[in-house]
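Quick one, tokens below:
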């Protein structure tokens, strides 16, 4: 069901979109190429009488949201009408469970007035308690070495920064494996060789600014980098 369409409206924000009908995925479509999503942000939360569930923990980059919800089995695609169409999963094995009077709130900001953005919700034949959520971790410009506990995460999005010199995974069996960025890029493409099928039919196997990293069996990540740059690690929390 289409819940938002900015075409011809000359707006930079969607306002709060209230959804009382449950869904499992959100389709994001736009007149922009994926790499052109630079200012756009999305916020999704489930408002419940027992306490709110923040899926995106406030606003997060729309590009990052798409990259973290289309890895592995899915890919960002395009059609004649839109340069991107991304089916973004927000719950596993069904639609987000909603109790009586619960509501899902969705909001976009940072939209470019001359472009078109469309949101559709995808209903499912069953409901699920397995709702995905996201959290941002970062290294400051002064940091040279930092450890991140990510045992509860199944996927992360790492800045593809030349300042990173080494990434070490500590697995659940306590074994430590060290990687270069080149090795991580290759391993990411091995798991998901198709990231984006563009409107002209060309295929991209990865994104220039980010690396999608599966975290199966990983307990923590240690990142070493040169001082002077900020590095972000955005994680998807396993449902």
């Amino acid at each position: 069901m289409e819940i938002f369409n900015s075409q011809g409206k000359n707006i930079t924000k969607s306002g709060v979109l209230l959804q009382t009908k449950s869904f499992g995925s959100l389709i994001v479509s736009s007149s922009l190429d994926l790499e052109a999503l630079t200012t756009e942000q999305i916020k999704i939360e489930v408002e419940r009488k027992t306490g709110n569930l923040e899926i995106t923990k406030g606003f997060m980059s729309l590009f990052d949201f798409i990259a973290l919800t289309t890895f592995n089995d899915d890919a960002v695609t395009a059609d004649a009408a839109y340069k991107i169409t991304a089916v973004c999963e927000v719950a596993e094995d069904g639609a987000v469970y909603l109790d009586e009077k619960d509501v899902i709130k969705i909001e976009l900001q940072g939209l470019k007035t001359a472009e078109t953005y469309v949101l559709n919700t995808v209903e499912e034949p069953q409901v699920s308690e397995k709702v995905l959520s996201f959290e941002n971790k970062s290294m400051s410009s002064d940091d040279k070495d930092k450890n991140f506990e990510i045992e509860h995460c199944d996927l992360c999005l790492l800045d593809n920064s030349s300042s990173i010199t080494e990434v070490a995974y500590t697995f659940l069996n306590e074994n430590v494996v060290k990687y270069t960025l080149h090795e991580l890029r290759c391993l990411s493409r091995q798991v998901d060789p198709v990231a984006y099928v563009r409107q002209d039919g060309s295929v991209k196997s990865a994104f220039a600014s980010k690396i999608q990293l599966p975290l199966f069996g990983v307990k923590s990540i240690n990142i070493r980098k040169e001082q002077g740059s900020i590095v972000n690690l955005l994680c998807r929390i396993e449902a």
